[in-house]
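re: ur question from yesterday

yeah so i grabbed the chain u mentioned. its 162 aa long if i counted rite. heres the sequnce exactly as i have it in my notes:
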Amino acid sequence: MKHLRRSALLIGAIILATIVGSTAFAARTIAFKGTYAGTVTEKVDGVTVTALAVGSGTGTLVGKSKLAGTVTATTADPPCSPLSGPGTIAGAVGKLKVALTPTSRGCAASEEDRDNVLVSGTAKVVGGTLKFKKARGTLRFSGQYDRKAGTFSVKLTGTFTY
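ran it thru and got these C-alpha coordinates back, copy pasting raw so excuse formatting
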Protein backbone atom coordinates (compact mmCIF):
# COMPACT_ATOMS: atom_id res chain seq x y z
CA MET A 1 0.00 0.00 0.00
CA LYS A 2 2.85 2.43 0.88
CA HIS A 3 4.54 1.59 -2.43
CA LEU A 4 1.33 2.35 -4.35
CA ARG A 5 0.93 5.72 -2.56
CA ARG A 6 4.53 6.72 -3.32
CA SER A 7 4.10 5.78 -6.98
CA ALA A 8 0.88 7.82 -7.23
CA LEU A 9 2.54 10.81 -5.54
CA LEU A 10 5.57 10.53 -7.84
CA ILE A 11 3.36 10.36 -10.96
CA GLY A 12 1.30 13.33 -9.71
CA ALA A 13 4.48 15.36 -9.06
CA ILE A 14 5.80 14.58 -12.56
CA ILE A 15 2.51 15.63 -14.20
CA LEU A 16 2.39 18.85 -12.15
CA ALA A 17 6.03 19.66 -13.00
CA THR A 18 5.31 19.07 -16.69
CA ILE A 19 2.28 21.40 -16.65
CA VAL A 20 4.11 24.14 -14.73
CA GLY A 21 7.24 23.76 -16.86
CA SER A 22 5.41 23.97 -20.17
CA THR A 23 3.48 27.04 -18.99
CA ALA A 24 6.71 28.77 -17.98
CA PHE A 25 8.11 28.39 -21.52
CA ALA A 26 4.91 29.25 -23.40
CA ALA A 27 5.07 32.27 -25.68
CA ARG A 28 3.44 35.42 -24.34
CA THR A 29 1.56 37.95 -26.44
CA ILE A 30 1.39 41.57 -25.35
CA ALA A 31 -0.41 44.65 -26.60
CA PHE A 32 2.31 47.21 -27.19
CA LYS A 33 1.96 51.00 -26.98
CA GLY A 34 4.89 53.34 -27.22
CA THR A 35 5.69 57.01 -27.73
CA TYR A 36 9.11 58.22 -28.88
CA ALA A 37 10.72 61.51 -29.91
CA GLY A 38 14.20 62.43 -31.02
CA THR A 39 16.46 63.66 -33.77
CA VAL A 40 17.06 62.75 -37.40
CA THR A 41 20.27 63.07 -39.39
CA GLU A 42 19.43 63.06 -43.09
CA LYS A 43 21.65 62.45 -46.12
CA VAL A 44 20.38 63.09 -49.65
CA ASP A 45 22.11 61.51 -52.64
CA GLY A 46 20.24 62.33 -55.84
CA VAL A 47 16.68 61.13 -55.22
CA THR A 48 17.67 58.73 -52.41
CA VAL A 49 17.26 59.89 -48.83
CA THR A 50 18.86 58.02 -45.94
CA ALA A 51 17.89 59.12 -42.44
CA LEU A 52 19.26 57.99 -39.09
CA ALA A 53 16.61 58.44 -36.38
CA VAL A 54 17.54 58.26 -32.68
CA GLY A 55 15.07 58.96 -29.89
CA SER A 56 13.82 58.05 -26.45
CA GLY A 57 10.47 57.38 -24.86
CA THR A 58 8.48 54.64 -23.20
CA GLY A 59 6.84 51.46 -24.39
CA THR A 60 4.83 48.62 -22.91
CA LEU A 61 7.10 46.02 -21.31
CA VAL A 62 10.33 47.77 -22.43
CA GLY A 63 9.66 50.78 -20.16
CA LYS A 64 11.96 53.77 -20.63
CA SER A 65 13.73 52.96 -23.85
CA LYS A 66 15.66 54.14 -26.89
CA LEU A 67 14.43 53.93 -30.48
CA ALA A 68 16.98 53.88 -33.31
CA GLY A 69 16.68 53.15 -36.99
CA THR A 70 17.95 53.80 -40.48
CA VAL A 71 15.21 54.77 -42.92
CA THR A 72 15.60 54.84 -46.68
CA ALA A 73 13.23 56.88 -48.85
CA THR A 74 13.10 58.56 -52.25
CA THR A 75 12.14 62.02 -53.47
CA ALA A 76 11.33 60.70 -56.95
CA ASP A 77 7.53 60.66 -56.54
CA PRO A 78 6.35 63.54 -54.30
CA PRO A 79 4.48 64.24 -52.12
CA CYS A 80 4.68 60.71 -50.61
CA SER A 81 7.60 58.35 -50.43
CA PRO A 82 7.81 54.69 -49.43
CA LEU A 83 9.89 54.11 -46.29
CA SER A 84 12.02 51.06 -45.54
CA GLY A 85 14.73 50.04 -43.13
CA PRO A 86 15.66 48.31 -39.88
CA GLY A 87 15.39 49.63 -36.35
CA THR A 88 15.45 48.75 -32.67
CA ILE A 89 13.62 49.60 -29.47
CA ALA A 90 15.98 48.96 -26.55
CA GLY A 91 15.12 48.92 -22.86
CA ALA A 92 16.49 47.31 -19.70
CA VAL A 93 14.72 43.99 -20.39
CA GLY A 94 16.03 43.62 -23.95
CA LYS A 95 16.04 44.98 -27.47
CA LEU A 96 13.26 44.52 -30.04
CA LYS A 97 14.39 44.37 -33.67
CA VAL A 98 11.94 45.81 -36.20
CA ALA A 99 11.78 46.29 -39.97
CA LEU A 100 9.49 48.72 -41.82
CA THR A 101 7.16 47.07 -44.33
CA PRO A 102 6.87 48.30 -47.96
CA THR A 103 3.49 49.95 -47.29
CA SER A 104 5.07 52.46 -44.86
CA ARG A 105 5.03 56.06 -46.12
CA GLY A 106 6.31 59.54 -45.47
CA CYS A 107 4.14 62.31 -46.97
CA ALA A 108 4.93 66.02 -47.16
CA ALA A 109 2.21 68.28 -45.76
CA SER A 110 1.95 70.02 -49.15
CA GLU A 111 3.92 70.89 -52.27
CA GLU A 112 4.92 74.16 -50.57
CA ASP A 113 5.70 72.58 -47.18
CA ARG A 114 8.07 69.67 -47.77
CA ASP A 115 9.72 70.12 -44.36
CA ASN A 116 6.64 68.91 -42.47
CA VAL A 117 6.45 65.15 -43.16
CA LEU A 118 3.76 62.86 -41.78
CA VAL A 119 4.97 59.26 -41.38
CA SER A 120 2.83 56.15 -41.01
CA GLY A 121 2.96 52.46 -41.67
CA THR A 122 3.81 49.10 -40.22
CA ALA A 123 6.92 47.65 -38.62
CA LYS A 124 7.37 43.92 -38.28
CA VAL A 125 8.93 42.71 -35.03
CA VAL A 126 11.65 40.29 -36.20
CA GLY A 127 13.43 39.15 -33.04
CA GLY A 128 15.61 40.82 -30.49
CA THR A 129 17.87 40.19 -27.55
CA LEU A 130 17.46 38.82 -24.03
CA LYS A 131 13.72 38.49 -23.28
CA PHE A 132 12.83 39.31 -26.92
CA LYS A 133 15.12 36.87 -28.71
CA LYS A 134 12.17 35.06 -30.36
CA ALA A 135 9.84 38.06 -30.60
CA ARG A 136 7.46 38.23 -33.60
CA GLY A 137 4.60 40.60 -34.32
CA THR A 138 3.34 43.77 -35.96
CA LEU A 139 3.47 47.37 -34.79
CA ARG A 140 1.66 50.22 -36.52
CA PHE A 141 3.17 53.68 -36.31
CA SER A 142 2.21 57.27 -37.03
CA GLY A 143 4.00 60.49 -36.40
CA GLN A 144 5.67 63.60 -37.69
CA TYR A 145 9.14 64.47 -38.97
CA ASP A 146 10.23 68.12 -39.08
CA ARG A 147 13.01 68.19 -41.69
CA LYS A 148 13.96 71.79 -40.94
CA ALA A 149 14.43 71.18 -37.19
CA GLY A 150 15.72 67.61 -37.64
CA THR A 151 13.25 66.19 -35.09
CA PHE A 152 10.60 63.47 -35.04
CA SER A 153 7.84 62.12 -32.83
CA VAL A 154 6.06 58.81 -33.32
CA LYS A 155 3.45 56.60 -31.65
CA LEU A 156 3.45 52.82 -32.03
CA THR A 157 0.68 50.31 -31.26
CA GLY A 158 0.33 46.63 -31.97
CA THR A 159 1.03 43.18 -30.61
CA PHE A 160 3.96 40.85 -30.48
CA THR A 161 4.72 37.45 -29.05
CA TYR A 162 7.96 36.75 -27.22
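noticed a couple things. DSSP finds one helix and ten strands in the chain. also Residues 18-23 have pLDDT under 50 and may be disordered.
anyway ttyl
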